[in-house]
Amino acid sequence: MVRIYALLAWTWMRASAQYPVSLALLTLGSLTVNALDILAIWVIFSHTTTLGGFTLPEVMFLYGTAGVSFAVADMLFGNVDRLSTHIKSGSFDIMLIRPAAAFLQMAVDRFNVQRFGRITQAAVVLGLALAGLDVPWSRAWMIPVMIVCGVVIFTSIFAIAGAVQFLLINAPEVANAFTYGGSSLTQYPLSVYGSELVRAVTFVVPLAFVNWQPALLVLGRDDPLGLPHWLRYASPLAAVALATVAVLAWRAGIRRYRSTGS
Predict the structure, then answer these.
(1) Burial 106-132 (b: 16+ CB within 10 A, else e)
(2) Phi-psi label, residue 40: left if phi above 0, alpha if psi -120 to 50, beta otherwise
(3) What is the DSSP string of 216-238?
């Protein structure tokens, strides 16, 4: 499956490379837009020393870990939440009869190199944050774990958002609230939000396990809401649970699908 994905991605990248000027402008535009998020953080800290009780390097750490996780998930599987477009046009029917998983084909559709811009920007922010933090090796092991779990969580949300579109054809905007909206929410300390929202993204939609709970362990910080300490180690459990839900939802959507009827 990995080999098929790589071949399809390479095919789309070669196609986009036929228009180098357009590709360069799109990549530059992506980097510029993402850089505005960093600018917003700098503007905030030009007027204060902490945000929700967290310093600039700590906020950059939260931003970088969430950004890398989301960027990788969006690059590899983000197109799944655009399923309704293929259902409306009838092109999803073609995917179903090809000798490759429909989910895989949806994920790699129109893959292009400009997606690497978001990953590069988030990785640079994360590197700068770590340079400004004194994280001991006894807690640093959680960083790669939280990034991998974050990728799984965001990918699962993309898959669930895609599955919902088997029922609600005009659902992309609703799905974006949980995918791109979830990415924006996790870029900042959850301590700046209300306690009800924090509990919702901890026990309902587990976005808190993308970086917030494991970051409290890495940074050696207490939970502002006083939630159980063991939650800081629960990112793998949350990722597996949400991935299971995503698989079941996607399979249920495929079974329900009855073509466009045209």
Answers:
(1) bbbbebbbbbebbbebbeebbebbbee
(2) alpha
(3) HHHHT---TT---GGGGG-HHHH
The whole-angstrom separation of Cα 177 and Cα 72 is: 18
**What tokens does 106 get?**
């949806």
Q: Using CB atoms within 10 Å of the CB of residue 225, give its burial: 0 to 12 exposed, 13 to 18 middle, 19+ buried.
A: exposed
Tokens (6 digits) for 134:
């004194």
Whether 32 and 120 have beta carbons less than 8 Å apart is answered as: no
Paired tokens of 2 = 């990995």
The pair phi, psi for residue 134, each rounded to 5°, is: -105, 80
CA atoms of 96 and 118, how far apart (whole Å) = 31
Provide the pLDDT for residue 113. Answer: 66
The answer to whether 161 and 80 have CB atoms below 8 angstroms apart is yes
pLDDT tens column, 193-242: 988 999 999 999 999 999 999 999 999 999 988 899 999 999 999 999 99
Q: For residue 141, which phi and psi values (nearest 5 degrees)?
A: -60, -20
Question: Would you state the pLDDT for residue 80?
Answer: 86
- Encode pLDDT of 111-141 as tens digits: 766 667 788 888 989 999 999 898 999 999 9
Q: 17-47 burial string, b = 16+ CB within 10 Å, else e?
A: eeeeeebeebbeebeeebeebbeebeeeeee
